[in-house]
Design goal:
By secondary structure, the chain is α/β, with parallel strands linked by helices. It has one domain: HUPs (Rossmann fold). 36% of the residues lie in helices and 11% in strands. It has 7 helices and 6 strands. Helix 3 packs across helix 7. The longest helix has 20 residues. The termini are close together. It binds iron/sulfur cluster (SF4). Iron/sulfur cluster binds next to helix 6.
Length: 246
């Protein structure tokens, strides 16, 4: 708790670029990774991380169910930032085979529980494996994205994975993100200009109409409070963190 409080004080009022520079200094570039879905927030952070000039790892969760546009964006990003350490993450092959054998390819539509099983296998477990041995990971989450993220802080303790989570864009609006991304000519996933405001797997993501909630296109058949894949389950125990772990 003491360490987390110190981190929150240290990052207060800092720009996203300054938060990233602070994180690289505090944790060291080899103990830190950025997780990307190629959404504009992640693309902006990728660009800002590249400006630090350090070989920070960029994690890409290849669920096997992404849109082709997402793979195209991933490919272009790899080419654009050769100084970063690109690391794709995939589900365990044996577990995936068994899962598909038992539940079929579209089980996520049947219930929230089955949908979360798929997310757990394709996203949560591969990411957890990759986070082992790190001290912090960076995400593009923002507080205004959904009811599940309203209390988001710039730095949090990720209890499930046992490391810090750095959210440089926690208090930024969508307009701020897009303005900065456009100013810096950041590579953008084509889907984001076609109404896909929040990017996820193809069978679980659809475009939203103007004025609709940002994440309403994700798992649109579920209630808003269920709309997390397990990577960012809240509460993250900000108030419950044990000081002996910080
Ligand atoms: Fe499976 Fe859909 Fe989750 Fe992707 S978003 S891992 S397809 S349930």
């Amino acid at each position: 708790m003491e360490r987390l409080d110190r981190y929150l004080t240290a990052t207060q009022g800092k720009t996203p670029g300054e938060v990233l520079a602070w994180a690289a200094q505090e944790f060291g570039p080899t103990r830190l990774a950025l997780a990307s879905s190629t959404q504009v927030e992640d693309q902006l952070l990728t660009h800002l991380v590249s400006l630090l000039g350090q070989r920070i790892t960029l994690l890409f969760l290849d669920t096997g169910r992404h849109f082709q546009e997402t793979y195209d964006c991933w490919e272009k990003t790899r080419e654009a930032y050769p100084g970063l350490n690109f690391r794709p993450l995939v589900p365990d092959c044996g577990e995936l085979e068994q899962f598909l054998f038992e539940q079929g390819p579209n089980s996520f539509y049947h219930s929230v529980e089955q949908r979360k099983q798929c997310c757990n296998l394709r996203k949560v477990k591969p990411l957890s494996r990759a986070l082992k041995g790190l001290d912090a990971w960076i995400t593009g989450q923002r507080a205004e994205q959904s009811v599940t993220r309203a209390a988001l802080q710039t730095v949090e303790w990720d209890e499930a994975n046992g490391l810090f989570k750095v959210n440089p864009l926690a208090h930024w609006s969508s307009e701020q993100v897009w303005a900065e991304a456009n100013k810096l000519r950041v590579l953008v996933n084509k889907l984001q200009t076609q109404g896909f405001l929040s990017l996820g797997c193809a069978p679980c993501t659809r475009a939203v109409a103007a004025g609709e909630d940002l994440r309403s296109g994700r798992w649109w058949w579920e209630e808003p409070e269920h709309k997390e894949c397990g990577l960012h389950n809240r509460p993250l125990a900000v108030a419950e963190t044990r000081s002996d772990q910080r």
